[in-house]
Input
Amino acid sequence: MEANGAKQSHWDQVYSTKALEQSSWYQPKPSISLDFVQQFSIPKNAAIIDVGGGDSLLVDHLLDLGYQNISVLDISSKALERAQNRLGKRGKAVKWICADAAKFEPAEQYDFWHDRAAFHFLTNTADIQHYAQTAAQAIKPGGFLVIGTFSEQGPIKCSGLEITQYSEQSLVQVFDGQFKKIHCQQVDHLTPTQALQAFTFCAFQHTFCE
Output
């Protein structure tokens, strides 16, 4: 699946001009995300998708832990190319999906859907609703959804783009109905320039039954 348009051009430019270690979202080890994987005892053969994963190191750590069915989605082909180049032969075991998270139409279902810092770039109601509906359709009954967004104390823009801030209550409200909240927490992320960014992380379980 391919993404195109101004948004893709914007992010391709970002990834073409800024090294991973210089990016505000850089994490040598995405501990919060990995903690959720461990907390929910996600099986090694589970279908996992990292939405907006870019060239994040989460996929590296998941491969190190023995996970075998990983997809990484990002709007930027440049970001995905960087991740593939970094992983080398190991990257061939990963499904790379170039798509806009706001328009994504999954071809399979997932046991664990992870999104750190992609969802908050959706700023209109239609895109937000489509994302929530897509997650509800694409996550298996009993599967897990983990979303990390800028909190109400976090930035109001990122990489030159407007974002939507979320409190625990407003994030839960978006996914209410087909997802049950398991746990939310406030997290301060320290950027490579030593700035603090306030995040809201929430984990949900899919409660929808056919």
User: Anything to note?
Assistant: The beta strands are 47-51, 69-74, 95-98, 110-116, 139-150, 157-158, 161-162, 179-190, 196-206. The mean pLDDT is 91.
